[in-house]
Amino acid sequence: MLRFAFNRLLQAIPVLLIVISATFFLVHSAPGGPFSADKAVPPEVIRALEAQYNLDQPLWQQYISYLGDVLQGDLGPSFKYSGRTVNELIAAGLPATAELAMYAMLVALIIGISAGVLAAMRPNTMQDYLPMSAAMLGICMPSFLLGPILVLVFGIHLEWLPVSGWGDIPGDKILPAITLGTGYAAYIARLSRGGMLEVLSQDYIRTARAKGLSEPLIIFKHALRGGLIPVVAFLGPAFAGLLGGSFVVETIFQIPGLGRFYVQAAFNRDYTMILGMTVFFATLIILFNLLSDMLALWLNPKLRQQAGGDS
Amino acid sequence: MKPQVPVSTSSAFFTISLILLCSLLLGSCGSSENNVSKGNRTGTLHWGNGTEPQSLDPHIATGVPEHKIIVALMEGLVLKDSKTLEPRPGVAESWEISDDGRVYTFHLRDNARWSNGDPHNAHDYVWSWWRALQPALGNLYAYMYFSIENAKEYYEGEISDFEQVGVKALDDLTLQVTLKNPTPYFLQLLDHYSLYPVHQATVEKFGTADQRGTRWTYEGNIVGNGAFQLRDWKINRRVVVERNPYYWNADNVRLNEIVYYPTENAITEERMFRAGQLHYSGTVPADKIATYQSNNDPALRIDPYLGVYFYRINVETPQLQDKRVRRALGMTIDRDQLTERILKAGQIPAYAITPPGTMGYYPESDLRFDPEAARQLLADAGYPNGEGFPSTEILYNTSEGHRKLAVAIQQMWKKHLNIDVTLLNQEWKVYLNSVSMKDYQIGRAGWIGDYVDPNNFLDMFLCNGGNNRTGWCNPAYDKLILEDAAEAETHEQRLAIFTQAEKMLLADMPVIPIYIYTSNNLVDPSVKNFSGNILNQPSFSEIYLESDNGGQQ
């Protein structure tokens, strides 16, 4: 398993290099620079600014020195936020984004697994159709629609929950977590329904039923553990997706996370910020995929054998 | 077959889930008092502030959100009256102006202090203005200094001795400023943050004077001279300022605290305002304005704003080289229809570039909505009934508001002139690039005044003006603005020269004025002394909060 992880990490190096290079040259070729503004910027100011951020050097030289800095873990200064480094901005945004992703995952698991199990218990009945239709709706419902609807109902009309904020007002984390988690809940519902259906048709479940065990006991004690394997395999990529995909929710709910920085960086042509965020997310996605693959290996002896044979 | 997930794993998973769920829900217990009622009790103003500030260094910052924070933390020699915008004493308690209008002598208050208690004197201004004119600092507002003798020459490297620049500390409390020409709006400039003083010891503690991006403006570091001081700055979350006990007028400051919220999204900010999380929001989504208006909601404040929305014409475009064509385009925009049917927030149709009433200046414009005369002009230019007129493109930066307006204008030109116009939207930075490279035919534009004077609008279109971007150049116009207006002896004479210049501009029409902006603010009724003015500039040292039971803070 260790060798597998090591191999995968080795493979990650060229992937990251490609990501950095592609992003570097793409952002530098985009029209409009970081210092262009509505009001004309005098040439002497542009020169001073470019010199300060080494933008006056040839592109290849900038590229080499950027790679060198990244190797040392230095993502450079932000062009837009004067005096802040990209590392500092990522560190400032990560806790909120990670916390949001965690709560959203929790919401997704609770709703998704419950719906999936309910549906699998009586396939092709109303108990199956109802949660599965809801899941389909959840997959289709974009967060930029669901978020404002939840805010209107629970924030403005009922006044139960705050309409925005993060850790400022009691309860302000609930609506964002639900908004972000719903789409994933829907996926998890479908995955756990599939997993449960497969497990419920296995012999050992039939044996349990023959022993006269109650249905809840069969589901919770015997079926659930096996039925949730597809969900567990989904957790890694899902968590990476939650971290990287929370921009809309962060904007709707005014959450001081990473997503907003990422999008603003692109609008501002904040080269180092765009690059830094891309490198960071790429690393994160690679790591989560690796973790999730290792988890799958650990859970599934068949896969483990294959991986062992390959390496 | 055995279950594959070990019991310990699943129970650990459920335990973690339970803990997370509890922490999510536990947070929801607590008082239900919203920010506004709590703030009214404690004297805390909750202010929706647009985007995250990029810098709080007054010699580096450029945006409106930064401005709203800097004016709380720092102050210039002169303040503006929050209603009339007339100059009022700030750090300078009085001043004299020489008979030729070129030499200003400021007498600073002896009780002016920095927020760390250090004495604040005339030498601070000499050093700060020297710093602001260092090209390496990248101060985009350096031009605000150019009315001072030799400031431009120093900035552009023509002279290297700052002694020659017209700013001198005669003694600790007397500052003398010598101008190149009499500049009637000079006192106003002093209230612009780019001319605010900075605390030398603090700036130098964190880097050199001309170094950008040092940490001197961060919480715990920054020292200012304004009514408030920085207490907390959490990126993308909030900026909190509290009363500065050393402020010369601290006894009359009534707010205890201001919390600025960087809300990227106007819709979110409006929702926060409605839910009582904000006292103020300055970015009302356009489609919400009608709702507030139909409800007669007193929270909505619409005031004229010193800004103009216009279309630039690239006069180098073959079919737009003839000024008759440009005039015809300008004469077939039904501005009343645009403001009443599309914009719907009290905007004023614009027939000149300078907003009417700027320093008592009312532009005389012969521009009218006159399709018939426009058709004649177009025919005279060789395009009778629009025949043979090449398809022309309107460029705008991506925004629903700009699109709606462009579509309406496209239809008006089709209807009245029978010409085909296409629309092109570009993302902001791409659009800026296209306009500055003159890679456009007709381009949407806007200009917000930095100070209340026609000069701020008219000097945009000088031949080598960085913001001209139309390719239009008229030496006679340049002479009026640069020489005649600068040398005018009376205010009336000066305005008459501006009138003449603006007529010249409108006759050639390298720009088509469309409407004068309004500022749309949502202000909670508990916020008192909030005066709408044409610069939309709040005076935080005057604002106070009145709670529901009438108690004042």
Shape of chain B: globular
Unreliable segments of chain B (pLDDT under 50, ≥5 consecutive)?
A: 1-10, 27-31
The average pLDDT value of chain B, as a whole number, equals 90
Major β-sheet of chain A, in short? none
CATH evolutionary superfamily of the largest domain in chain A: MetI-like
Q: How many beta-strand elements of chain A?
A: 0
Q: Which two protein chains have the largest interface (Cβ within 8 Å of the partner's Cβ), and how many residues from each? A: A-B, 77 and 72 residues
Stated plainly, the CATH topology of the largest domain in chain A is called MetI-like fold
How many angstroms does the end-to-end distance of chain A come to? 9 Å
Order of helices and strands of chain A: HHHHHHHHHHHHHH
Beta-strand content of chain B: 15-25%
Give the tags.
heterodimer; A: mainly alpha; MetI-like fold; 3 domains; flat; B: alpha+beta; 7-stranded mixed sheet
